[in-house]
Design a protein that fits this description.
It contains five helices and two strands; from the N terminus they run H-H-H-H-E-E-H. With about 130 residues, the protein is mainly alpha-helical. The relative contact order is 0.11.
Length: about 130
């Protein structure tokens, strides 16, 4: 193979897949709902570690919103031959059961931490109020 044909073939590949459109070719690697699942999970964990009762209660709500996202089918947007298509994949039932169970554990931990803080604040108010 001559160097001019090798150079020409690499130029054709570069024209078909320009570097500025690299993100479009990797679009189907991560499902869209995974971004929201991770965002709700990390935001919930951050909030239930805070010292305000409202933040901990919001964390419980975020963990509840996580369950419908886990049970829904994961959707991938792909560009197949110029047509934008949606492919769906479901999490296997065994793994889904473990993930939902772990989410319920996080909910109970967040509820316990919320009640513990609420109870401690109530006791402080009773002590400072006096007889």
């Amino acid at each position: 193979m001559s160097s001019s044909s090798r150079l020409r073939s690499s130029r054709i590949e570069d024209e078909n897949f320009p570097k500025e459109n690299f993100g479009v070719t990797t679009l189907a690697l991560v499902p869209i709902s995974l971004v929201f699942e991770l965002a709700l999970l990390f935001l919930g964990i951050i909030l239930y570690r805070e010292n305000l009762t409202l933040e901990r209660l919001v964390a419980v709500g975020l963990f509840f919103f996580e369950i419908p996202l886990l049970t829904a089918s994961q959707q991938f947007f792909t560009d197949a031959s110029g047509t934008l298509t949606v492919a769906t994949v479901s999490i296997p039932a065994t793994l889904l059961g473990y993930l939902v169970f772990a989410d319920f554990l996080l909910i109970f931990i967040a509820l316990y931490r919320w009640w513990d803080l609420y109870d401690a604040q109530r006791k402080v108010k009773e002590v400072t109020a006096g007889p």
